[in-house]
């Protein structure tokens, strides 16, 4: 990460950049990625809140987590969060639908799209909970593997107009990640073990994709306790 050209920016500057995308006149998909604990979810939620529902909607990649029962059947539950613990083909297909939606709606081919959502309190995805209207100009999506170069992730990337890689300092990222695990019920020991174990292995895979981003950014604002 040290060799990358990292831009420091305030939230207000990033919001202005996102707003400019929304006023481009066409459907635009903005992706936000980064390692676990980087603050992707928090930034994405703040941007959508700032722009408002007339301009933007958030469709997280986490809605495509495989269900826990499926992970147990595949013997992948202990690696939950790795790229093969998601329905990546489903996510890629949804991104392609979302990218085409606005033009298709005028021809009667696509109306409201309902995207899934991930409930962290349940640790399960819930289907068809996020309505994406054809009239919404900016769709924000966030997740770990938007820039991964093995299939089918590149098919999702093709549908995303611009990808930002969020790059806090490593100390800040780990602190936020451990706090998040504790907030969702893990003991301090369990939170640290998870953060430095499977999460760290995933973080190393994700960090290697940063060079494919349109913008590598370090947020100057104080991090929110909801960072993800």
Gist of the model:
With 228 residues, the protein is an alpha/beta fold.
Can you describe this structure?
- InterPro entries: P-loop_NTPase, PRK/URK.
- This is Nucleoside/nucleotide kinase family protein.
- It comes from Microbacterium profundi.
- GO terms for molecular function: kinase activity.
- Keywords: Kinase, Transferase.
- With 228 residues, this protein is α/β, with parallel strands linked by helices.
- The chain has a single domain (6-219), classed as 3-Layer(aba) Sandwich (Rossmann fold).
- 39% of the residues lie in helices and 19% in strands.
- The protein is built from eight helices and eight strands, in the order E-H-E-H-E-H-H-E-E-E-H-E-H-H-H-E.
- The strands form two sheets. Strands 1-8-7-2-6-3 form a six-stranded parallel beta sheet, sandwiched between helices.
- Strand 4 (113-119) and strand 5 form a beta hairpin.
- It is globular.
């Amino acid at each position: 990460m040290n060799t990358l050209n990292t831009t420091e920016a305030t939230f207000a500057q990033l919001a202005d950049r996102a707003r400019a995308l929304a006023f481009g006149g066409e459907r635009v998909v903005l992706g936000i990625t980064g390692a676990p604990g980087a603050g992707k979810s928090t930034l994405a939620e703040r941007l959508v809140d700032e722009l408002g529902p007339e301009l933007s909607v958030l469709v997280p990649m986490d809605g495509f987590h495989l269900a826990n029962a499926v992970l147990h059947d595949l013997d992948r539950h202990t690696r939950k969060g790795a790229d093969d613990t998601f329905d990546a083909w489903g996510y890629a297909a949804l991104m392609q639908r979302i990218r085409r939606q606005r033009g298709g709606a005028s021809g009667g081919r696509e109306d409201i799209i309902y995207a899934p959502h991930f409930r962290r309190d349940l640790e399960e995805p819930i289907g068809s909970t996020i309505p994406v209207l054809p009239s919404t100009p900016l769709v924000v999506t966030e997740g770990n593997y938007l820039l991964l170069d093995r299939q089918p992730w590149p098919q999702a990337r093709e549908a995303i107009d611009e990808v930002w890689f969020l790059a806090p300092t490593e100390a800040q990222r780990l602190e936020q990640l451990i706090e998040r695990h504790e907030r969702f019920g893990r003991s301090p020991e369990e939170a640290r073990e998870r953060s430095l174990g499977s999460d760290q292995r995933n973080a190393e895979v994700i960090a290697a994709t940063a060079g494919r981003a349109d913008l590598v950014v370090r947020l100057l604002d104080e991090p929110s306790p909801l960072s993800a």
